[in-house]
Amino acid sequence: MLEPALLPTPLVDCTDEVFARAGVELRLKRDDLLHPSVPGNKWRKLAPNLAAAVAQGHTRLLTFGGAYSTHLRAVAAAAGALGLESVGLVRGEELADRPRNWSLRAAERAGMRLEFLTRAEYREATGRADAGTTAGPQGRWGHCLVLPEGGSNALAVTGAAAIPAELPDLGGHDVVCCPVGTGGTLAGIAAGLPPGARALGVAVLRGGEGYLEGEVTRLHRAAYGREFDNWRIDHAHHGGGYGKVPAELAAFAERFEARHGIPLERRYVAKLLAALTGLAAAGAFPRGTRLTAVVTGLPDPE
Ligand SMILES: *Cc1c(COP(=O)(O)O)cnc(C)c1O
Predict the structure, then answer these.
(1) Same-fold call for 11-37+154-294 versus 40-151
(2) Quick check: 190 and 213 in contact, CB under 8 A?
């Protein structure tokens, strides 16, 4: 059995002078506290997929990820708890013969079988993820429910749409904010908002302009058959690229942790909060704006 989730996740006020000076209210939606083994937005996105897998009688999940993928660990933990098999196709064939890092070790301990692909094989396999399971490396694993890299598909978006549904009284002065990796979480938040409220995503990778907007739009079409115009993505706070944590960002995260007593995951959550702080200081939000930052995950254990 999968351990129960803490729902709704806590919503807490965050008093901070930068925001106060700008006349902006900041709240934190503590999705980092959602689940002990399937963290934050990974649980939001996986839950409806797992329910569908079980309902459709699937016995094996297959998905993709890099050497430190939180998504891989989350799928491994959830599948293990539900008595499903899981397969992880990992980017980087050179990892096959090396001692496992903590992340891949955790996935294997939860029961996931790993197969290591070259960059080219990986690109091809992820590109085909939606198209079926008969060709390429995933075909070797027989009948599987295939989840895309990062876990963002139409069902995942409907799972993330429950986040704004847990925020009472949203209106025209509200902006609900999250980091953007694949865009699934942002797509869900935007779709779940009531009229007037808006969503803001902060891209954590470099050079995502156009591509990430296209992904959010594609996911909206897949999940709801329509587009939404209540969201946008900030591309100016990626800190140099995916996984990069420049010294300035690390210092910001340490200050924030010391002041507010909340541990900050660095690759996504710290970037989001640093971006909001910078935007508020620069007067990017009208006075009276209420920001809700979704704390989408926990710091890595190592
Ligand atoms: C995976 C992850 C994200 C990225 O979410 P997307 O839906 O892929 O945009 C954001 N925050 C944390 C903490 C994550 O682990």
Answers:
(1) yes
(2) no
CATH topology of domain 11-37+154-294: Rossmann fold (3.40.50)
pTM over 0.85: yes
Count of CB atoms within 10 A of residue 229's CB? 7
Domain 40-151 has CATH 3.40.50.1100: yes
Query: For 256-279, how does the pLDDT look when each residue is reduced to its tens digit (9 = 90+)?
Result: 999 999 999 999 999 999 999 999
Q: Could you state, in order of their start, the residue ranges of all structural domains in the chain?
A: 11-37+154-294, 40-151
Q: How far is the CA of 268 from the centre of ligand 1 (A)?
A: 7
What digits encode the pLDDT tens for the residues 131-151?
Answer: 555 566 777 888 899 999 999
In this prediction, what percent of the chain has a pLDDT beyond 70? 97
Question: What Å distances lie between residue 38 and 79, 94, 231, 236, 258, CA to CA?
Answer: 10, 27, 27, 29, 26
Choosing from 41, 202, 267 the residue with most ligand 1 atoms within 8 A of its CB, the one to mutate for a pocket test is 41
**184 within ligand 1 shell (Cβ under 6 A):** yes
Classified as helix, coil or strand, 108 is helix
- Dist CA 245 CA 283 (whole Å): 25
Tens digit of pLDDT for each residue in 71-98? 999 999 999 999 999 999 999 999 999 9
